[in-house]
Amino acid sequence: MKKFFHVICLLGLSIFLLIGCTQKLAKNKQQIEDKGISYEFQLPAGWETSKAGYNEYGLQAAFNAEDKKSNSYVFISSVPVKDVPQKDFGKQTREKLKKRYHYKDIEGIYMKKITVNKAPAYKYTLNTTYKEKSVWAHLYYIWTKHGFVQLTYYSADDNSYKKRSKIIDESVATFKETGFDEGAAEVAKNEQREEEGDVISIINHDIKMETTGVRQVTGENQKKLLAIRYTFTNLMDTPIQPVVWNDYVTAKQNGNILSIGKLSADSNLLDLKELINNQSKEVKRGEAIETTVLYELKDMSNIELSFSQDAFPGEKAVEVVIPQ
Fold first, then answer.
1. What per-residue confidence (pLDDT) applies to 10?
2. Which pLDDT tens digit goes with each residue over 60-72?
3. Is 153 helix (H, G, I), strand (E, B) or coil?
4. Which of 78, 87, 99, 305 is the most buried (most CB within 10 A)?
């Protein structure tokens, strides 16, 4: 009888453990299609897909989800795998994250080289803010057969963040590429090229400015703004601020000069705020910095950028398409 009782207890414990494990992840697999590539993975249990958009300078999230109970989020985006080489990625990305999130000590950013379903990957963890709240950002970068995928989890900085971190790891462990459509990939490539336009690069003896993307955002007083992200490089001996863009570049819409825009004080576009703040930083000779300029839009027609002929003689005006 005792033996039978122990068997029943063990069976009950096994069932309890099994239920505990299955509750960590959702039963249904999420199907994702992006740039001709198909992926699937399982969300943490209780998380729901979201229709809220997330766009980082033309890199539109292919998938969004959130846990409304803890105010945690995940965004997934991808580019063709050939666009991101693996060599030196780990250290270089850690250094970029250090600068972007203003960490004094690079060791404060957790980094680990991992594999996800046999695909090479990196994981980074750091503390930042999202929607004006402290969060732990878990960043996963995965090279599948055809795609380079970034999974960004913002996990609430609460008493459950350690437990949630383990569940997020388990969620990522289910991620894999399931298919590839070459025709759809080519169509997506052409569409993205049309949306982003050509890279604009201007250079003289003193500075170099090169655009890296455009993005439409909402600014102060609900005004529609165009954010132009650019890399600023100082080529002269004296320090200089990237805000000199405003002295050398004029933006027009239908012949009307556009005003410099501002984000609202309560804007939750924290990454964008950091980039805008970079405009006023001193950049030494040989240094480069990522920054952003904002323009107030009058409508959705194309923008013309013209350049100071004194500083950049012969540089022709270019058109910028406003992304929807």
1. 40
2. 678 999 998 998 9
3. strand
4. 78
